[in-house]
Amino acid sequence: MFKKSEDKSYKRTLILDAAMKTFVKRGYSDTRVSEIAAEAKVAEGTLYNYFPSKEEILLALFDEKWGGIIDEIKKKISRLNNPNDKLKAIFSMVVTMFKKDRHLAEIFLIDIKQSSIFLNNYTINRVVEFIDLIEEILEEGKKKGIYRKNLDTRVAKMVIFGAAQGILLSWVLNESKAVKSRTFQFSLFRAARALKNIFKSGLMEERR
Amino acid sequence: MFKKSEDKSYKRTLILDAAMKTFVKRGYSDTRVSEIAAEAKVAEGTLYNYFPSKEEILLALFDEKWGGIIDEIKKKISRLNNPNDKLKAIFSMVVTMFKKDRHLAEIFLIDIKQSSIFLNNYTINRVVEFIDLIEEILEEGKKKGIYRKNLDTRVAKMVIFGAAQGILLSWVLNESKAVKSRTFQFSLFRAARALKNIFKSGLMEERR
Amino acid sequence: MFKKSEDKSYKRTLILDAAMKTFVKRGYSDTRVSEIAAEAKVAEGTLYNYFPSKEEILLALFDEKWGGIIDEIKKKISRLNNPNDKLKAIFSMVVTMFKKDRHLAEIFLIDIKQSSIFLNNYTINRVVEFIDLIEEILEEGKKKGIYRKNLDTRVAKMVIFGAAQGILLSWVLNESKAVKSRTFQFSLFRAARALKNIFKSGLMEERR
Amino acid sequence: MFKKSEDKSYKRTLILDAAMKTFVKRGYSDTRVSEIAAEAKVAEGTLYNYFPSKEEILLALFDEKWGGIIDEIKKKISRLNNPNDKLKAIFSMVVTMFKKDRHLAEIFLIDIKQSSIFLNNYTINRVVEFIDLIEEILEEGKKKGIYRKNLDTRVAKMVIFGAAQGILLSWVLNESKAVKSRTFQFSLFRAARALKNIFKSGLMEERR
DNA sequence: GATGAATGAGACTTCATTCAT
DNA sequence: TATGAATGAAGTCTCATTCAT
Fold first, then answer.
1. Which of A131, A158, A163 sits opposite B159 (nearest CB)?
2. Shortest CA–C1' contact from C31: which nucleotide?
3. Disulfide check for A27: which of B41, B94, B114, D123 has CB 3.0–4.6 Å away?
4. Measured between alpha carbons, how far is B71 from D161 in angstroms, rounded to an integer?
5. pLDDT 10s digit of each residue in chain A, 208 long?
6. Backbone dihedral region of B206: left (phi > 0), alpha (psi from -120 to 50 degrees) or beta?
7. Tens digits of per-residue pLDDT, C38-55?
8. Helix, strand or coil for residue A79?
9. Spatial distance between the Cα atoms of D183 and C130, rounded to a whole number of angstroms
10. Domain C1-52 - what CATH class?
11. Is the pLDDT of residue D121 over 60?
12. With 80 as the cut, is the pLDDT of residue D72 above it?
């Protein structure tokens, strides 16, 4: 009762959350509409009162969940000057948000290449937007003499993005306990700190 | 004719190559058995003379293609001493192989998390094996005083693995031309060199 | 307000009219209950306060709209003696009514054979009643020596009924403009006159 | 075995025949794909090896069954001169064909107005083609002084077409035994002869 | 009574797998 | 062994009907 009146799109959110959970767990193609419905605790038909198709659920998911993050990130870093602080702010926000909304982390990992849904679709652009944002910061840092003159920013942005994905993957798999290995055992915050160090100083021991 | 008699599993290879190409292009779930058959230029029924199911094709693929790489990598780095050289050798081999077999690069990108096929399955272990190989090298480097004492190797290995994935993604997307953006414009070799620099010295300008 | 209180079954009529319009436009099976509700400007649930099911709406429609016509026709021709006048009266009434209520014409065209609803159902009997009425008139005309002795009345009634359907179809299609062809271009009254001539004298030039 | 090799599109024909039977019995929208499959004694999936959708089955049906008749009719009447003979030939062929292929008669009765499939679709043109063919013959008859000068050919063609439909409807319903009434009891050939008489001399007793 | 969101049975269609040739 | 038509389980989606408000 309470929740319902609190937000007239309560069910819509329920469905999006359920979809996110299942898309991430099994992948888009292997997720059954019936699974999303069961997870959301509504009838299958109800999904179609809120979204015209399974595909539109995925697109809405990207648009609303992921798009929101980017907008927040952009607002935040616009108030910062130092490129280092900006990158740090980005990671800090991403990590914080992911800690808050576990499934958000997982959407970061959905394979953006495979599905033809994404290509020729503006949704992927929100991801590209994020990636290009990193490149801008790196370029700015080069101009200000903070980053190496010979830093290849086009490569670096993918490295940073990939690295972030890799860490999240570890974290997600670690908690899902699906894989038992030394590989996956760490806290997200500790990982973010380690990541910062790697990009700050590389892997090498300080030369004297 | 000739080829056929040369190797009694000629068709098997044909099918595996076709499967790799299509799995990578459309993802495992979105690939139709008929597509694999068409790509391999055999009848659908023929596939089932060589593999008991579609899933087994994927497993064989990982096992033979990817597994082969790991074995080669292990052999190669066992002859090296310096951890830096080992990492460099790994990347060099991966890059070279990917240049040679374009689709191999793409399999690297198949979402290893999504498919429930992979979890609870020994196949993922070949990937984990690769990732853990990196950790071993990093640990060795720490012991030898080459890498920072405070390097979190569990994080670092995922960062390196993710970074490699990110670069490959750029490369693959770049050539598919599906996405137009500053994001994806570079050669694989240049990228590998840039990656090395990032991990060697970080992003920062050398302090004097 | 006024209309509402004027007739406690005001909504019932609204719904029947809306149903007729949509059944005719799209056919019974392809008409959605939601379309009827929208056309009637009531909520879907409201329909079920007046009719127990979609099917019952169709049956009520036939019964009340079509049945009314037949009753009127029967009353009218009971006051006539000459079979020719009777047939003429029938056509005249049908044409006049169709001009007044466009959709009534269309219901005449609903395929009475297709829907299993109609078979084993008394509704079709109102149509059969109409058809048999024609036969009775023809038989009467034969007895009175007005129609040919060798006229096969069982065939003739279907011919007349079919002819009337054909003309209405032309008229309806003509106005819907859906089909562009010489086929469909004429006024209903002119058509009725032509129909009369055909049945009066056949197609042939008068022999002298 | 035998049948199969006799015609490589044996199954296709089976399916078309089954579809015709069921479409006619229940109407297009109320026919389930599973019913067609059952009638054809093949699996549901098999239908989709021959037709891309249920709708395409209907279109193929019209095109091949109905289209074939029109072509044959056109060829036949092109060898005749007298408009009366032409009309007679048309009816004779239609009747003969319908006697041979019972279901063909029924397709003649499928509601050509309801389904939006037919409008804006060339299929309906085959029906219109048939109807216009009648008009041409009537016009020719007028020019040659065989038919009445004041015959409205646009009306007459619909009357003739409607009449033919009416007769076929009687015949079909008669055999289906679904409706018990004096209405439907006659042989097709006798009906055709009666039809000819009606159009030749009208309903009226010969005036002396 | 009126509403329209929720429901779920059942429709069309896909596609991995089988099997007769 | 190779083929590809046939199969049918299972998927996505529709829509008549119900029911809480």
1. A163
2. F15
3. B114
4. 80
5. 444 444 558 899 999 999 988 887 777 888 999 999 999 999 999 999 999 999 999 888 877 877 778 888 899 999 999 998 998 888 888 877 777 776 666 666 554 444 434 444 444 556 777 888 899 999 999 899 888 888 888 888 888 888 887 777 777 666 554 444 444 445 777 777 777 777 877 666 655 4
6. beta
7. 999 999 999 999 999 999
8. coil
9. 10
10. mainly alpha
11. no
12. yes
Q: Is C177 exposed, middle or buried (0-12, 13-18, 19+ CB in 10 A)?
A: exposed
Positions on chain E within 7 A of a protein C-beta = 1-21
Q: Angle formed by the axes of helices A83-100 and A122-143, to 10°?
A: 140
Task: Provide the 10 A C-beta neighbour count for residue D175.
Answer: 12
Question: What per-residue confidence (pLDDT) applies to D150?
Answer: 83
Q: Do B134 and B83 meet the contact criterion of CB atoms below 8 Å apart?
A: no
Single-letter amino acid code for the residue at B88: K
Report yes or no on chains B and A touching (3+ CB pairs under 8 A).
yes
Whether B161 CB is under 7 Å from strand E = no
What is the Cα Rg of chain A in Å? 19
Query: Which residues of chain C does CATH 1.10.10.60 include?
Result: 1-52
More confident residue, A179 or D101: D101
pLDDT of residue A202: 63
Contact predicate D120/D73, CB 8 Å: no
Q: What is the predicted pLDDT for the residue at C122?
A: 46
Q: Are A165 and B161 in contact (CB under 8 A)?
A: no
In angstroms, the CA B88 to CA B98 distance is 15
What is the secondary structure of B74-139 as a DSSP string?
HHHHHT---HHHHHHHHHHHHHHHHHH-HHHHHHTTS-TTT-TTTTTSTHHHHHHHHHHHHHHHHH
Q: Up-side HSE of residue C14: CA atoms within 13 Å toward CB?
A: 17
Q: Give D54 or A131, the one with higher predicted confidence.
A: D54
Please name every residue paired with A147 in a beta bridge, in sequence order, or none if there are none: B204
Exposure string over C32-45, b if 16+ CB within 10 A, otherwise e: ebebbbebbebeee
Alpha helices of A2-121 — where are they, by DSSP H?
Answer: 2-6, 10-26, 33-40, 44-50, 54-61, 67-77, 83-100, 102-107
- Closest residue (CA to C1') to nucleotide E9 in the complex: A45
Within 10 A of C98 (CB to CB), how many other CB atoms are there?
23
How is domain C55-203 classified at the architecture level of CATH?
Orthogonal Bundle (1.10)
Backbone angles phi, psi at D207, to 5 degrees: -85, 140
- Which phi and psi angles does B185 have, rounded to 5°? -150, 85
In chain B, ranges of CATH 1.10.357.10 domains? 55-203
Which residue among C145, C179, C204 sits closest to D119, beta carbon to beta carbon?
A: C179
Give the distance from CA A154 to its chain's centroid: 20
- Which amino acid appears at position B115 of this protein? S
C201 touches strand F (CB under 7 A): no
Distances (CA, A) of C192 to C71, C87, C141: 21, 11, 20
End-to-end CA distance of chain D: 67
Would you call B158 and A150 a contact, using CB atoms and an 8 Å cutoff? no
pLDDT of residue C59: 84
Nearest to residue C172, comparing CAs of C93, C100, C109, C91? C109
Give how far Cα C89 sits from Cα of B196, B200, C191, Å. Answer: 98, 102, 15
Contact of D206 with C148, CB cutoff 8 Å = yes
Residue A195, CA distances (Å) to A88, B153, B203, D32, D91 in order: 10, 10, 12, 60, 87
**DSSP state for residue B65 in the 8-state scheme:** I
Which residues 43-72 of B interface with strand E at a CB distance below 7 A? 44-45, 48, 53-55
Distance CA C78, CA C71 (A): 11
Separation in Å: F6 C1' and B45 CA: 12
Give the integer Cα–Cα distance in Å for A72 and A80: 13
